[in-house]
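Need tokens for this chain, all 504 residues.
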Amino acid sequence: MRSVFNFTIKQFMKQRMRSIRRFMEYPIDTQELVFKELIKASKDTEWGKKFGYEETINRQEFMQRVPVSGYEAFYPWIERSLKGEQNILWPSEIDWFSKSSGTTNAKSKFIPVSKESLDNCHYKGGMDLLSLYFENVPDSKLFQGKSLAVGGSCIENPFNKQSQIGDISAVIMANLPGWAQFARTPSIKTALMNEWEAKIDKLAEECLEENVTNLSGVPTWSVLLLEHILDKSGKETMLEIWPQFECFFHGAVAFHPYRSIFHKFFPSDQVNYMETYNASEGFFGVQDDLSRDDMLLLLDHGTYYEFIPMDEIDNEFPKTVLLDQVKENETYALVISTNSGLWRYNVGDVVRFTSLNPFRIKITGRTKHYINVFGEELMIENAEMAIAKACKETNAVLANFTAGPVYFNESNKGGHEWIIEFIIEPNDKHLFTCLLDQYLKELNSDYEAKRYKDMALILPKVHFVPEGTFYKWMKLKGKLGGQHKVPRLSNNRVYLEEVLTQCM
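Here are the structure tokens for all 504 residues:
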């Protein structure tokens, strides 16, 4: 049975490599075809009728008729789908919604996931990931064992009991095709469990007995699982448990803070690490060359791309450029139209083109201040609102703040570190810290999930600094006055270290 599976999957991979080479050779034509297919499929939807999706519409007319939208502007349309209306944004039935961290107006975002998106975007992207991996590692024995995927869970849609909501990883697992089910562990029942402590124990129990050759997941949760497996087994390294392990497929957060930890789990230069860009909205990129640190932009996966130059990002009606207009080493905000019915949707990610032949990108950040080292996607809106509420509760008056990550290491879990300056300090500093944490959890579901019982993130560390600290720091940097501002959130520790070492 396994030999038949291996032969079949390798034939699929050969077909996909031909398709990958084709879109790499003809990227602009490929995107033109994707655009036409999306318009044709959606012309009779409510959205398509509103914006005149005739089959003759060209890309320039499309850009003139349809506004660029973020989640808040797009939500009224998504809300109707959440409540069970069909043929609103996409013609096929929408029975699944991917849940990701929220914005100013909502604790969570709900992204529609169509059957076409699952089949022709997420699963096709997964097949491309494997195809490119074998292209890089032709003597791989990946299929001699099992793939372990660390994902989330699904729940019944509270707006409509006929559909489901879950992390994109859980939505993908719940709908996996047969070939993918055959090659994976643990059981789907275990993979989709809700309660994390019970789930991680069951995951470890099932996977200890398997020959796991590869792991897929967000580094944050993967670290916790691997630590639990080692504790349960009494072994020193994961290679004692899975001697044929050869690759960790990772995404969602920057991997560099975790690399040294994974090397301790898998102390071998033969273990590979491969990055993916598989978001709630679609599968957009994959590392196609293990000697590089960028990703190939996936062009024939039902996603039509536009890009907002950074000097347009704050405009109410930003102008976009198309793939044939982007420049190498330039940074852009990503705008997508997809086979799940997202139209000129600003994902919120910022990418830089590292190559134009083929088109390769690196994710350089978000369009807003954020911390996303652990998959928590903490946005500036969440931080400012949480601090304001904590100040009100403790009779404090805020002057300034900045925050960044505390990375995992051998002895510590991850977390957030804050430097906060007050005009009037809180009457109870410990209470302020606890309230800050509480309100962040209330405002951001991903942060709340990572803080669950201190499993991935511990209570924030807060430095209460003297008044004038940030003024001193800005003066040292020559950034007093004008438009210069203290950076509120950062995905690295540069600002934290500068303030703590230069001004304390």
